[in-house]
Structures are given as structure tokens and as C-alpha cells.
Amino acid sequence: MKKLLKIGKIIFDIIFVLFIVAAAFLTINSVIAQISGNIPSVFGYSIYRVVSGSMEPEIHVGDILLSRAADASEVSVGDVIAFDGGKQYPGLLVTHKVIRAPYDDNGQIMLQTKGVANNYEDDPIPAESVKSIIVCKLPFLTWIYKIFMSPFGIIIIVALLGFIFFDELKKLFKKLTAKKNQDPSET
User: What's the CA gap between 115 and 121, in Å, rounded?
Assistant: First the structure.
């Protein structure tokens, strides 16, 4: 039984270290992308959180979406895309449904989008504004985000971090006191 517990502890430690490495990689990737003015992505995929109700009832406020980097040549009617808001939505990344496939407008490729809940179509957007195609909603991440961003969730995060910190401190203290109490003739 002790051997099984030891193996379980080793597996847990390996998974924990891999999780920390992945979290560090994603954090560094995100910071670098934000500094350079890009959208954080891993292998061409990004995650967005919806902040407006323009796509209700298909996509709700707070939903987390997975998107794949794409250009206008990959877009067709019915696709939900993320695009630079341009003049109509300055400084925003907009997620709307394509209602008119890319077309040539006096030598410039354009396409037309619309928020499902909106009563009006968006202004035509240039093809280079397209950032990605929405692949799917991520309900599990949406649920996690909502829980951890609530007051109760923040208390859980702080408690978990405190538990990990004090557990590591306890282990360090045990190692230090074990070396201090060790018989000098054994070394």
C-alpha cells in the first residue's frame, strides 16, 4: 500500500509540474501577444470571452469561445467570425455571423456580417479585418470562469494558494529540521 501511495504521489507531482509549466507558457505567451498588440494564441487557436449580447440566443454574454486563425478566403455565409471592429466598432474585436460571403468591391475584397440579436447589418468589412473563425463554445471553461470570478470563487482561489504555500513551507521546515537533528557522524 505504501508503494502504491508513493507511485501516486510521484504521478501527482509530475502532473502538477506539467500544469505549472503549461500555465507559465500560456501566461508568457499571453503577455507577449498583448504587448505586441496581437491576440494571444497557441497553435493558431485563441479563446475569447463574449462581452455583449449581439449574438443572443446563439452565443450568450460570458460564453467562452474557441477560435481558429483564418482569413477571408476561408469564410462562408453562416460562419461566426471574429474581426477587427474598424470604424463601426473602433478598438473592438467583434464576433458576428457572416451574412454575405467575401465579394469584390472595386478591387477590394469585402464581406458582410450581422449580430444575430441586432436589427441591422454591420457595415461591410474589408477581408483583412478577419482574425478568426469561431470553432465552438467551451461551456466547461465558461462555467469555471463564472465560478472563479465570483466572490466565492476568489475565496476558493486564495484558500487553495494559501494551502499550497503553507504545505510547501511545512515541507521545507521538515527538511531543514531533519538536517539539523541528523547525527554528524552519519554524514
Answer: 7
